[in-house]
Amino acid sequence: LDQPRSRVEFTHEGERKVLECLYVAGCDGFHGVSRKTIPEEKRREFERVYPFGWLGILSETPPVNDELIYSNSKHGFALASMRNENLVRYYVQVPLSDKVEDWSDQRFWDEFSRRIPSEAANRLITGPSIEKSIAPLRSFVSEPLRWGNLFLVGDSAHIVPPTGAKGLNLAASDVFYLHSALTEAVTGKGTGGIDDYSSKALARIWKAMRFSWQMTTMLHRFDGEDAFAEQMRKATLDHLAHSETARRDLAENYIGLPF
Q: What is the widest separation between alpha-carbon atoms in the chain?
């Protein structure tokens, strides 16, 4: 990948294939081979693993609200989201030691109900789950996004906790930058775009990382946290409730920064 022309080898239908190319886009996710192809001495990784996960269920029931509900309570975080008028995705914060088998549908509904506002809980319609899983939360960035002819895109280079809903948004911005850069390169308009791809994409990635980290720390209770941390979380939420400037900043980041 650090030569003028690159070769990608793979097996298809039992036959070994070789693809010669000018550029390779590593879009193979966090567990793929692309990032690991970059020599360890050439890359730097940043990671924050959070000490909890999200237990989520999918249920064919009407949404409890026509907008998202992010809930911070003394019992922990909860999120109410919807897919359509009869399909919901709900989450509760759980310890990483928990397993899906520990949570019956009834236990989930009981816990979810006590974490969301009482007026929403009174409207809640429950039903059997059609899917249930626990997702760990982490923040992760690998730099640079380019090594030779290889360009990392999306989850192969970065992971955000779902609190800020920025995973797909970041992947889309990576694709936007790389598409423009490769178009310029292969049409003979110069290599400035591919030379700047990593720095341009990372500038936006780190802003989204900050926002997702901020949302996660603002909305979740951490085991072993002191009273000061709890008061800071309350102060942050109170600031959002009473400051239009703070709400505007959150909205700008939540909707997605321009790219």
A: 64
